[in-house]
Amino acid sequence: MNRPCLTAPTGATAAQRDRIAATLPRIETARLVLRAPELADYAAYARIASGPDAAFIGGPMSAEEAWLDFCQMSAGWLLRGSGLWTVADRESGATLGFVTLGMEWEDEEPELGFLLLPEAQGRGIAAEAAMAARTYAFDTLGWSTVVSYIDPGNTRSAALANRLGARRDPVAEAAVPGTHVYRHVPEVRP
């Protein structure tokens, strides 16, 4: 895919992009780096948004829909002070997926979300990234709670939310029919 919007900027525009990206939090864990999203990460995002688990996140999405979603999630940093991180392998730098402290149009409150490439699933990466992002939300941003909106058919994400110590919130679920809402609080951490 050779879309003009996916062409990396050069010159002063690239320098400006780098300055902005440098202001976003970078979190390192034992195996991962949570870093600012880059244009090159869109390919991984599009794979997730059009892949086998895409139905759990409003997909499958076309390339344009995935681009708009990627941009919207990334813009959270500028508009709300939290947003999308790229989850990268700490040693190789390879993009493994994404974790977000975000707020989409239909969300009732801030969400902890996690999206991984198929080859990164089943290795504890989502848990490691989600714990790091959640700790940032509580300890740095001062949030008292965050939720994970999970499709009822997404048993893997539900199991992960449970492992993270989150519990279903029936009051919050009443506002978003057809969605399970898992509430994370600072006092409950694995």
Automatic annotation (TrEMBL):
Lineage: superkingdom: Bacteria
Domain N-acetyltransferase: 32-190
GO molecular function terms attached to this record: acyltransferase activity, transferring groups other than amino-acyl groups
Keywords on record: Transferase
UniProt xrefs under InterPro entries: Acyl_CoA_acyltransferase, GNAT_dom, N-acetyltransferase
Any matching Pfam family: Acetyltransf_3
The protein's name in its UniProt record: GNAT family N-acetyltransferase
Naturally occurring in which organism (per UniProt): Pontivivens ytuae
